[in-house]
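ARCHIVE CARD
Drawer: 12
Card no.: 0347
Subject: one protein chain, sequence and derived structure
Cross-reference: see card 0346
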Amino acid sequence: MLSPLAVFALVGRFVLLFALLMLVPLAFAVVGDDAAKGAFMTATALTLAAGAAMVISARRFRRELQSRDGFVLVTLTWLLLPAFGALPLLLAMPSLSVTDAYFEAMSSFTATGATALSGLDALPLSVNVWRCFLQLVGGLGIIVLAVAILPLLGVGGTQLFKTEMPGPMKDQKLTPRIAETARGLWVIYFVFAVLCFFAYRLAGMSWADAFMHMCTTMGLGGFSSHDLSFGYWDSPAIEAVAVVFMMLSGVSFALYFLAWRQGSLRILWRDVEVRAFYAVVIGAVLLISVYLTTNGTYESYRQALRYSVFHVVSIATTTGYASADYTQWPLFAPFLMLLLGCFATCAGSTGGGIKMIRLLVLLKQARRELVRIVHPNVVNPVLIGRAVVSPKVIHSVLAFMMIYGATLVTLTMLLLFSGLDVVTAFTAVVACVNNIGPGLGTVGPVHNYGSFSDFQTWVCTFGMMLGRLELLAVLVLFTRQFWRG
């Protein structure tokens, strides 16, 4: 039986915690005395008041939540927190519409990196800090969600790592308590974030830029404080730092947690998904660098390699940074990078997309069916590593992929219906559902989503949330069976 008031009370606690997060950009605003100081003070007060009102009004209805409550809780949290996250943007930029403000906050919180804003260099520092800091928070939130919560609800990429699958999440919680798991993941995430912050600073960024880009690198979100993104610095050293930490963030943080507990890094290399992730990204880098050289896009292979490494890693990990306008490359390269962003990252990472483990299961199942055509009676189970994948998991992956495909088609058709060209419509949907950020056409790396109508923006906003919560956790709420007693 659903308990909406108990869910409401817990969401209120999240809103209270979210209000405290606003103290970070507020501190930047106070120290720098920028124009958004009043906006953050007001937004913090309003968010605190709303959270307190939610908790107080439902305090009598606290009880242990059931799995169906969990679906409502997760979806409601991901809907409401961006609304409160949009408050400072609306107050600091009165010309910004509610639609664009919510889109920006949702893009931040889901670590998508699609923006409707231009003139980022001229924005108050605290506004840019808030946009970027939300991506750090959203990145950590999705790790905890993916590793500690979604498996308990039976959805998400990490459900594949139950008893049937090898990898970090055979024990769903990693430790006996979810709270302990969350703390362990938070420590690993924080350590990486600190290292990334100082690496950016040593590479040549200012302290503020190092903090903001640390946030968006660890969250694999891709927001920048500059319109030119990494082209603002044109620095191989800064790009190298970004590549290292994007690749680190593309791997399951649960694996890092287990490696830390066991005192050995072997678990990382033994993981099939990690090996596939690195193999696919490195292979794509080599292919695109050779392709750009032979097509004369860059004068030397060294230059082609530099730009291909940065952009392939950026898009494949669903970060979305850019140091050049890669839409001017031969079309094969940007389309391949966008394809990589759909599946390359590992389950339990801060990346978006369907996750590499699902692709591996699909490929193994396809090979199994081909063998069956030739040898109908052969016993040929699907293996990931040395473990047999159960039919239940295979059916789950196939169902997910059908829903994923239907979602891409439906949202693309809605954007085409609204008047967008096919390249912009399709790549915008792919970029939003997979939380990549930039697409092609009018939403490429040198453009943004600011030209979209309200309807188009809301379609993309919904796509971002769907993709970040791995579709099923949201779409199950639209079924009749869910709401039956």
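Annotation on reverse: Strands lie at 383-384, 387-388. The mean pLDDT is 88.
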